[in-house]
Design goal:
Blueprint (H helix, E strand, L loop, with lengths): L27 H34 L5 H34 L3
Length: about 100
């Protein structure tokens, strides 16, 4: 008789279902408010990156920062603005598609 000593069965216990924590569902008004605050925070972040790019550009002109630091800041701001524009375009497309749907 071959015994498997690699896995000890003494430490194995049967699986038991855990009680799931009850998650309070949000009302539609609360979810819209949280989405609105998320969107507002994202737009504020993009605006802050754009302002930082302007500050870095000004500092580069007077010689306080290197050209590469200013360019990195400008590219980050540009990418953020491009992403925001693409998200806006997708939202507009989705809205137009919903409005074309016939009921």
């Amino acid at each position: 008789m071959i015994q498997n000593t690699m896995f000890q069965a003494s430490g194995v216990s049967p699986l038991q279902m855990r009680e799931q924590a009850t998650v309070a569902e949000k009302t539609p008004a609360e979810s819209i408010r949280s989405f609105g605050s998320y969107l507002s925070d994202a737009l504020n972040s993009v605006s802050a990156q754009e302002q930082q790019a302007h500050v870095m550009s000004d500092k580069m002109m007077i010689g306080q920062v290197n050209v590469d630091q200013a360019m990195i800041s400008a590219q980050q701001a540009l990418l953020s603005i491009q992403l925001t524009t693409q998200v806006r375009n997708k939202v507009v497309e989705a809205y137009q598609e919903i409005m074309r749907t016939q009921i």
